[in-house]
Amino acid sequence: MKDILATARPAFVLLVLFSLICGVAYPLLVMVAAPAIPHPEPAALVGQTFTDPAHFWGRPSAIRYDATTSSGANLGPTNPALLEAIQGRVEALRALDPGNDAPIPVDLVTASSSGLDPDISPAAAYYQVPRVARRRGLPETAVKRLVDGMIQERTVAVLGERRVNVVALNQALERLGGT
C-alpha cells in the first residue's frame, strides 16, 4: 500500500499543478495580455448571405451562416442531394448572368466546410464582375479594380490560397456607389 501511495503522490501533485497552470493561470494570462497586444488585422468577418444581383455573392452555406451551428453539409461527392444542390446553384448563376459563358468557379456552387466562410477565390469574384457592374451601372473596369484591391495574399506566402472577403468587398462596393 505504501508503494502505491508513493507512486500515486507525484501523479496527483502533477495533476493539480498542471490543472492550475492550464486551467487557471494560462486563461487569466490570456485574458489580461490579449487586449494589450496590438493586432495587425481586424477580426475576421463571418460570411453573410447576399442574394441581390448587384452584390457579390459568397460561397453557399449549408447552415445559412448561422454561427451558433457551424457545420458543413457532410455530403459526399457522389451524393445525389449534393449534385442536385450544385446544379441548382449553377442554373441560378447562369439565369442571373445569361451572357456570361465563362466556367463557374467551384467555390460559387459548393458550400464551405464550416458554413461561415466569408472568402471566395479571386476567380469567383472576377466571374461576378460583369453582373455586378451591369446591375450597378458601373464600368466593369472600375468593379474589376475594386476586386483587384481586395485580394488577400496567402498567409506567410505559403499558407492557404489567395482570397477575397465578400463581406468587405460588398462594403467597398457600397462606398463605390452605383445604382
Give start-end ranges of low-pLDDT stretches: none
Mean pLDDT: 86
User: Whole-Å distance between the termini?
Assistant: 83 Å
Instruction: State the helicity in percent bands.
Output: 40-55%
Strand arrangement within the widest β-sheet reads: 1-3-2
Element-by-element helix/strand order: HHEHHEEH
| Proportion of residues in β-strands | under 5%
The biggest sheet, with number of strands, parallel, antiparallel or mixed sense and barrel status, is:
3 strands, antiparallel
Q: What class do helices, strands and sheet pairing give?
A: mainly alpha
Provide a compact summary of the structure.
With 179 residues, the protein is mainly α. It has helices at 2-33, 80-96, 122-136, 140-150, 166-176; strands at residues 119-120, 151-152, 163-165.
How would you describe this structure to a colleague?
The protein is 48% helix and 4% strand. It has a domain of 110 residues. It has 179 residues and is mainly alpha-helical. The chain has a 3-stranded antiparallel sheet.
